[in-house]
Amino acid sequence: MKEIRLDNFIDEFDKSQRIVITNHTNPDGDAMGSALALQRILEKLGKTVHVIVPNPYPKFLWHLTGNDRVMIYSNGKKAANAQIEAADMIFHLDYNAYHRSADMEEALRAAQAKKVMIDHHQQPESWPDFIYSDTVMSSTCQMVYEFCTMYNWDQFLDKESAECLYTGIVTDTGSFKFSATTSRTHEVAGKLLDLGVESQQLQNKIFDSQPAARLKLLGTMLGQMETSADGTVVLLYLSKAQCDALGYEKGITEGFVNYGLSVDGAQIACFMREEEGIVKISLRSKGLLDVNELARASFNGGGHKNAAGGRLDTDIAAALAHAKTHLPWS
Predict the structure, then answer these.
(1) Percent of the chain clearing pLDDT 70 (strictly above)
(2) Strand pairing category for 114-119 and 130-134
């Protein structure tokens, strides 16, 4: 489903000097790539731009240009709130509901700035002044590229901003493997390559520069993998004790859920990771199986048809029991 509500956007943009770009809690490659690329483009248009994210993000994204200027809300709420309050316009990237901004929600709700949503998740809320939503688009990074072409801003793309956008596309499509990848996705990726992106070098930084702890955690997770009787559902998990013992750090388990879908016959994969008092959940599916609806109904989350997330306010043992009750476990 597509919703484009951008009437008078450019008039408001021209009047806006101070701009804040935000994204969702636990930012991933698409969230950070889109934010940092857009920041670089808007600065070339003469705007004063701050990227403010709810909490820290994985080290494998720290190479992106602009990383050193990102404001982490959880590390400095007073300074971040001052920028949000002073903003003339706020871009909300890669999320479509206020609660996805976590502790930033109150400040964002109170902000008097014009609000622009660019996002590809299902069921967007209606509060933004301007919306560009497309639930079949591969990534918010692809959407930012398309958004820029609407206003001829793509002329301001350079190698650095192209690397940011390519990062989001390649991570959100599973290196062009997932179903939302289209011929247009490849076309946009090709244009970014033409701007100087070195695909192999960039993907090495993203996927092949992981700490040893990641492999230890992966081995532990795979060693205790469970499958439904018919083999269509794969359940993966890590307890907090295991994470603590093996050196977990933010982002280190990114992509673990996809190992479940690689099992022959698997149609749904669920990965659970326990933190203090909560269990975070990633869901993936193949074909027509809709894990977005499953996440919304049973796991306090949501996302896309074939990729969603959620959380349970419980421990890992109770979460596993809950999953076996609400997944098609047989």
Answers:
(1) 100
(2) parallel
